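Summary for the lay section of the report: proteins are chains of building blocks that fold into shapes. Here we show the chain for Coiled-coil protein and then a coded description of the shape we predicted for it.
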Amino acid sequence: MLNDLIEKRKKVLAESEQHKNRRNELNALASKCARERNDLNAQTREYVEEAQRHKEERDRINKDVQALKDERNKYNERANALFEEIEAFKREHGNLQNRGIKELQKQIEHLEFKQQTEVYSTDKERELIEKIKHLKSLVKEQEAEFEQNKEMRAKLAEARELRRRASEIHKEVTEKAELAQQHHDLMVEAYRKADRSREEADRAHQKFVEAQEAADEEHRLFIACQKELRDYDKVISGLRKKTRKTKVTREQKAVRKEAERVFQQFRDGEKITTDDLLLLQRAKLI
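The coded shape description reads as follows.
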């Protein structure tokens, strides 16, 4: 029975070592996954901060764009008023054959706005630019008719100057709008990167949880094995003590029997040796 218990204890000890080693491996894996998750979360925060910077810059530039548009529109409104006076003068003198300058300017503004805000293929954009150039040439042709009138010439010069300023501002509007769009695109890309790294962090966290739970289970099994080993040790120790006690009892009985035989010889008057005397003392017969 004792040998069987010892063999079973060896098996439990081996199982305990397996659970301990597996637990340590899983804890190491959980730590690795936790580091990856933390790195990815930090990366996500960096991407979000980057996106926020681009968003703030985009919004700041868009405010500048709106202010420039307001300024450009004021110049265009003043220019339109002058061109309206010029058109009235032209109608009054019965010389209006083609589309008025104001109407042409409105068409030009509309086309320039479309060029700024809409996306065209290379060919379509080239066609749009050519159309704008054509309309501007028509404006110049009609404006030339007023060069002979001093008052109209002054109004026309002022209107042209206002248009020039509006055109310069429109150019700046276009440049800033493109820059704002660049920051917007960079913001969107940074948010996309943040989403991807956040998803990777979530996956790493899930692996961490799974590894940690598995490690906890292995630790539970390891502790159960340790308890079972302690139980085996108690039983085996008890059996060994009992075996030793039984062996001592048998030895004591044998000594007593032999001592009684020697004592009987002593009583019968036979000679006994020193060893016999020691045996009798050991058996407490003398």
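Put simply, here is one thing we learned. Residues 150-267 form the longest helix (118 residues).
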